[in-house]
Structure formats: structure tokens, C-alpha cells
Write a sequence for this structure.
């Protein structure tokens, strides 16, 4: 006896047609959101799982999507993966996480998997397209790819992103409001667009407040902890070091704060610090890290929903989808004490 719940079981429970259930679970966009939500909740309650093997035979699809990131060891991606999986599983898709470690060969391999049909779509979070021959890249614009959080200008792919300039500007304005005037910035990997835009937000806040940016106050980083330590060390070798630092991600902020402790500085007593990302470790860190929070779970869901729409033949939105951010004020920022 097969007790596995089926589409018609969900339909009978809710008093809708099996076709309506099928459309809702495939995220076709043809079912009103209240009904679609009730169907997804009932599917979860009944532990419904699509018959992927049968669907594969009908559609000639792998029913697999790729989430490709630059460093799978970075906890930043975990909430995004959760959001992607929630939307993917409801539609019968599995998610494979690809780790490039910024290796051009690996980046190309994942595009090859997509081109060859080993995956049906991709959510790309590496900040750039792979290096490849013009022949290899020829068909890439037509591939079902969504760029999440990172920004790849000229790619032609739809984007789900945040306002990096505005979020960075707001973070620095908070430091200015606390009375800080010597404010430095540890950047992400420039010239990647996301890093450039956070640097732009820092500069805009400083210019708007008529504050100088001394030589050495913009230190390069690459989003990893070690680079935060090294950049921080360089800042405090300056003749007039900063009293506050805006750092382009939390991981580098952790490294910078550890370096300050090594050289005998107190955070926030001597130096205020703001990170970016709201990693779950930020609240456990001491003192808890003030940071810019991105709605990573919702970003993952939105990117996957957008990808499902592309796989269903719907046109992607012409403009990037911009998600909100929030500055979480915790324990690493304090009013400047002259």
C-alpha cells in the first residue's frame, strides 16, 4: 500500500482542484497568494514530496538547481541556503551548493554543468562571471541564472540585491552621530561592484559631513578574517589612527577587533566598529557586534522564486529586486570620548 500523500490529497483537504495545487507548488504565479500559502502549508503538514522521477521523465529536467558561492566555509551563506531550499523543496527541486574558492576553473565547471543539463538553473553569488573563451560564453546569456546579493554589471541576468551604498552611508552616519570624526574603512575586494558601492557609501557620508579621509584610512580587505586583522594593524600604524572603523563585512570585523585587543585597545572604549552582514556569531561575540543586517533568508527565497519563474518560462523583471537592510546597534559602538 502506498501511503505517500499526493496532490489530490492536498486538493481534497482544502477543497480546491488538483490543478490549482500543482500550479501553486510549481510556483507558476497563477494562484492567488493566500491560496498558494494555504497549499504550501498543507503540503508541509502532510509531508508531501513531489514524485521527482516521474516529473523528470515528463520534463527532461534534472530537478536540481545550483547555489554557487565563493567560500562554502563562510557562515554568511547558510541563511541564504535555507531560504533557497525552502522555496526549492516546495517546488520539487533539490539544491546543490557549489564552492568556487575564487578558482576560475571551478567557476567555469558550474556553468558547464548548467549548459550540459546537469542542473536546471543557478543562483550565483561569486560576484563575477567565469573566465572562458568567447565560444564557451556564447550561450551563457540565455541560461537560467539569478545573481543574488553580488552585482555583475552587464551580465543580463536578473539580480536580487540590497542598496549597498545606502546601507554603508547609514552605518557611517551612525558613527558620525556618535561624535566620531576620524573614521576609517576596511573595504571588500575592490574592484568588485559590491565592495565599490560600500566604499562609495562610506565616502558619501564623510563628504556630506565635511570630514576628511586621510591617506591610509581606506584599507583593502578581501572579506576574510585575516585581511581584517592585517588592515587593522596598518590603520594603527598611522600617525593619527581612527577612533571608528566601518568594515565591509562581519568576518573582517571579527579579525580587526581581535587585532585591536592584541595591541591593547578597547572596543568600543577606544575604537567603535561597525560590520556588515549580521552573522549569527555577531550576537555571541563580545561585545556584540554592531552591524548592517541583510534579510538573508528572504533573499534566498526571493532568488529561488525568481529562478522558478524563469524555469516556468516567465520573463525576469528588467530591474534588480532590492531588499531592505537594517542597522543593528549593539555593543561595539559608543559615543566618542575626547
Amino acid at each position: 500500500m502506498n501511503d505517500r500523500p499526493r496532490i489530490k490529497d492536498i486538493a481534497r483537504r482544502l477543497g480546491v482542484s488538483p490543478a490549482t495545487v500543482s500550479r501553486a507548488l510549481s510556483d507558476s504565479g497563477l494562484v492567488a497568494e493566500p491560496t498558494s500559502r494555504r497549499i504550501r502549508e498543507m503540503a508541509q503538514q502532510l509531508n508531501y514530496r513531489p514524485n521527482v522521477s516521474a516529473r523528470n521523465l515528463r520534463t527532461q529536467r534534472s530537478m536540481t538547481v545550483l547555489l554557487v558561492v565563493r567560500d562554502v566555509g563562510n557562515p554568511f551563506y547558510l541563511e541564504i541556503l535555507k531560504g533557497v531550499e525552502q522555496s526549492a523543496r516546495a517546488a520539487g527541486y533539490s539544491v546543490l551548493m557549489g564552492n568556487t574558492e575564487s578558482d576560475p576553473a571551478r567557476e567555469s565547471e558550474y556553468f558547464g554543468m548548467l549548459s550540459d543539463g546537469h542542473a536546471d538553473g543557478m543562483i550565483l553569488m561569486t560576484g563575477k562571471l567565469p573566465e572562458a573563451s568567447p565560444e564557451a560564453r556564447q550561450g551563457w546569456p540565455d541560461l537560467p541564472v539569478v545573481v543574488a546579493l553580488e552585482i555583475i554589471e552587464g551580465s543580463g541576468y536578473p539580480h536580487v540585491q540590497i542598496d549597498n551604498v545606502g546601507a554603508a552611508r547609514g552605518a557611517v552616519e551612525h558613527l558620525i552621530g556618535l561624535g566620531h570624526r576620524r573614521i576609517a574603512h576596511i573595504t571588500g575586494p575592490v574592484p568588485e561592484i559590491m565592495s565599490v558601492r560600500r566604499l562609495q557609501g562610506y565616502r558619501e557620508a564623510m563628504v556630506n559631513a565635511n570630514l576628511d579621509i586621510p591617506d591610509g584610512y581606506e584599507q583593502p580587505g578581501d572579506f576574510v578574517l585575516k585581511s581584517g586583522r592585517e588592515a587593522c594593524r596598518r590603520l594603527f600604524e598611522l600617525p593619527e589612527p581612527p577612533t571608528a572603523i566601518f568594515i565591509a563585512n562581519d568576518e573582517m570585523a571579527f579579525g580587526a577587533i581581535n587585532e585591536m585587543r592584541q595591541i591593547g585597545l578597547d572596543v568600543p572604549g577606544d575604537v567603535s566598529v561597525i560590520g556588515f552582514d549580521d552573522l549569527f556569531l555577531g550576537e555571541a561575540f563580545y561585545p556584540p557586534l554592531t552591524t548592517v543586517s541583510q534579510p538573508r533568508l528572504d533573499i534566498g527565497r526571493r532568488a529561488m522564486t525568481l529562478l522558478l519563474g524563469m524555469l516556468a518560462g516567465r520573463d525576469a523583471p528588467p530591474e534588480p529586486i532590492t531588499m531592505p537592510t537594517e542597522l543593528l546597534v549593539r555593543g561595539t559602538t559608543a559615543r566618542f570620548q575626547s
Summary: Residues 193-208 form the longest helix (16 residues).
